[in-house]
Write a structure and sequence with these properties.
Blueprint lengths: L17 E5 L3 E6 L17 H8 L4 E2 L8 E7 L2 H12 L4 E9 L6 E5 L2 E3 L7 E3 L8 E13 L5 E11 L6 H9 L25 E9 L6 E5 L5
Parallel strand pairs: 4-11
Antiparallel strand pairs: 1-2, 2-4, 3-4, 5-10, 5-11, 6-9, 7-8, 9-10, 11-12
InterPro entries: PsdUridine_synth_cat_dom_sf (IPR020103), PsdUridine_synth_RluA-like_CS (IPR006224), PsdUridine_synth_RsuA/RluA (IPR006145), RluA_PseudoU_synthase (IPR050188)
Enzyme class: isomerase
Family: Belongs to the pseudouridine synthase RluA family.
Amino acid sequence: MSKIIDTFIAPPCYDEIETLYQDDHLVLINKPTGLLSLSGKNLQNLDSVHHRMVQVFPGCSLVHRLDFGTSGLMVIARNKAINAALCQQFSQRTVTKVYSALLCGHLDNNEGVVDAAIAKDPALFPLMSICATHGKPARSGYRVVERFYHELEDGRLLPLTRVQLIPETGRTHQLRIHCQQLGHPILGCDLYGGRLLPGTEQTPRLMLHASELHFVHPIGKEWIKISHASPF
């Protein structure tokens, strides 16, 4: 198998991480778009959610990640035991994650499920691909919130659909590639067709935001249900 070489250099992110909740065991944050979740091997990619959070909460660790361009809710564990307990919830799929997104075009159906296995292909890196034979199972639900037209500077109307996306699994790029599979890529998605339609080329960011997170507190055992409104 060919070796994967990551040449991506993240531009500086000047937006702050917003802390929404903290206790002795975990921290809930709102990640800005344009910030890596984890520092890369390249020293030019040192800045990340983890790099910033350990300055404030020594010993903390990531339970899950969001893509570089995705904004929104993340839970950070403050010690290894909490990390293990939360990771178990994620792996057992008892955590509910809801994302807000803008999709290119108008979806025909008001709701549905995309069930399409996703595979890594070093030859296509960093893209993932739909592959029924070699891919890992992946399911995503979607619900239409509204269909509308965005007026561009030249007066053209760009059809968009605002949706809620509910991933049942947690594969890399899952929501982005599943929306492409629907024929309606996420606006601003440079990897899966979200900047190909006329008028979408200069979209300032990936229009994907982790807006809700539901899980059980590892110590208190109460349900934590947190939401953060989409910035777009």
